[in-house]
Every structure is written in C-alpha cells, then in structure tokens.
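Bench notes, afternoon.
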Amino acid sequence: METSVKLQDGFSYSLLPIIGLIIIIVATVLVVIIMEIMKATEKKAKKKPVVKIPSDITTIRAKYLLALDKVKLDFEDGKISIRETYTLMSSIIREFIHKTTGINVKNYSLQDIRTLDMPILEQLVTEYYAPEFARESNGDVQLSYEKTRKAMEEWN
C-alpha cells in the first residue's frame, strides 16, 4: 500500500488572517497616537493667558475712547457706512483689550473669545458680528457705541 503526502506551497494558505491582524495593530497604534495628540491639544487649550494690567491704563483708555468717538462722528457725518462703523468698533475694542491685558484678541474668532471668560468682550463681539458680516448691515450704532464706551470706561 502506497501513501503519498503532498505538501502545499507556503503561499497557498490564506493571507486574510495575517492582513486582518496587521490592520488591527495599525488601527490600535493610530488610535493611541490620536488620543495622545488630543490630550496635548487639550492641555494647551486649558492654559489661561496671563493678564497683565498696564500702569498707564488711563492713558490707554483715553486713546481708545477718542478713537471710538471719532468713529461715531464719522458715521453720523455719513463718512463711513454702518458696516465700516461696526468693523472699526470691533477693531477698537479688540486693540483696547490687547493693550490692557496683553492678550492678542485682534484675530480671535468669537469661539476663541468665549474661551477667555471675558463676558463683556464676548457680548460686544457677538453684537458686532451681524452688522459687520451680514449681507445687509443693520444695527443700532448709538446703542453699540454706548455699550462699547461703557465697557472701556469700566475696564480695569
């Protein structure tokens, strides 16, 4: 009685289990890397900016109140549009905050401003957004001017 044994080539076995194992390992490594990146980003976001109070806040306040008054007068004289008025008021309050706190909010989005825990600035920028960016600008310039002025006068 004759028995024969035939060996199969090494590549004739299915590669699916090996490929599946490699995919699982790569996916696990990617998840760990992404989680570490998210933790690092979260730690950065939690850092509160250091607020510095300048010694000459009265001078800074006077300078920006004058700039705000000029914008209001230019609007009332018809030299600038309502959109330009709100854009300039936003720029003035942002520069004022930057000069008084050291936090460069000039290019911050509204979401970035919300993370600063400065409700007055958040309220003003929220109020400026619609007239500043809407297709048709509408807003109460006088009321916005008064709110901005009051915020600058009371800022310490």
